[in-house]
Amino acid sequence: MQLSVVILSYTTTEGLFKMTSNCISSLIESEKDIDLEIILVESNKNYNESGFIYPEFVKVIVPDSNFNFHKFLNIGIKEAKGQFVALCNNDLIFYENWFSAIHKVSKNNKKIKSFSPSGNINDLDFANEFELGYKVRTHIQGWCLVIYKDVLKRIGYLDETFNFGYADNDYAMTLKKHNIKHALVNSSKVEHLEREKVKKNREDLSEGYKKLQESVDLDISKLPSYVLTEGNKYLLEDKKVLDDYVKYHTKWGNPKLLYRKNKIADLLIIWNLGFLNRIVL
Fold first, then answer.
1. Domain that holds residue 250
2. Which residues are listed as membrane-spanning (predicted)?
3. Angle at CA of residue 45, ends 248 and 164, nearest 5°
4. CB–CB of 38/57 below 8 Å?
């Protein structure tokens, strides 16, 4: 059984290189009996001339296109040979047997096809081994997702219309639509480094973010009415996130409609009629 780990990176400084290297090292140390394939999808187009070199066992791919979260993950997914694929940020620290815990849940619960590890690394006394659900940042941790590769083929890979924001939300809705169960595995421990821990790299990351902002083509005058509310003030300050917010609701329905559809979809899942979510959603 092989696990393919797709890691997105942006290697432009020694600090960012060290962060990604620590991520890879902890991954190797965490699982001694798992056949690991590591695929690094690198956003720095000048990586090959940068002088930074990752270990030979890491397959580094440098796409010609500009960064797009889902597109870059899909590039890695299509290269992956494992039965399971992990989609990961590069600011992670993997703890011992993190994937073995997920694999144990998958073996004992055949209908669960998508998983997230717990970021609560100090919480060792958990009530349940895993929790089913689709709530973003609760059940679905976008910084580390593990899924059967054949499921990704079935649902059509990840939607590349999203630049970065609302990618987790789109993934959650896609799983729910296709009646694919997702679980947060409390016994699987992966630490997502806090921003304060990587603040030395923030300036370089901010430069990359500015470039993403500049690439967004969005006509503010044509925004749908549901955007122009008091609670959405923060969106108007970030054109990139706003663009993805509009794309998300254009795809799945405006906030009020989506709320009602989700209520129906959740009831259908409870009644074991989740297969009807393809119609509802």
1. 221-281
2. none
3. 15
4. yes
Same domain, 180 and 269: no
Contacts of 235 (CB under 8 A, 6+ apart): 227, 241, 242, 245
The residue type of 140 is: I
The torsion angles phi and psi of 206, rounded to 5 degrees, stand at: -65, -35
pLDDT tens for residues 162-220? 878 899 999 999 999 999 999 999 999 999 986 545 554 544 545 554 555 555 555 66
Specify the pTM.
0.89
Alpha carbon 46 to chain centroid distance?
25
Q: Which helix (H) or strand (E) holds 256?
A: helix 255-270
Q: Are residues 135 and 6 in the same domain?
A: yes
pLDDT tens column, 220-271: 666 788 877 767 777 777 777 888 888 999 999 999 999 999 999 999 999 9
Burial class (CB in 10 A: 0-12, 13-18, 19+), 271: exposed
CA-closest candidate to residue 27, choices 4, 49, 50: 4
Tell me, what CATH number does 16's domain have? 3.90.550.10
181 and 244 together in one domain = no
Q: Going by C-beta distance under 8 Å and a sequence separation of 6 or more, which residues neighbour residue 170?
A: 158, 159, 162, 248, 251, 252
Same domain, 109 and 171: yes
Q: Which of 156, 178, 195 is the endpoint of a domain?
A: 195
Pairwise CA distance, residues 109 & 103, whole Å: 10
Q: Residue 42 has what pLDDT?
A: 95
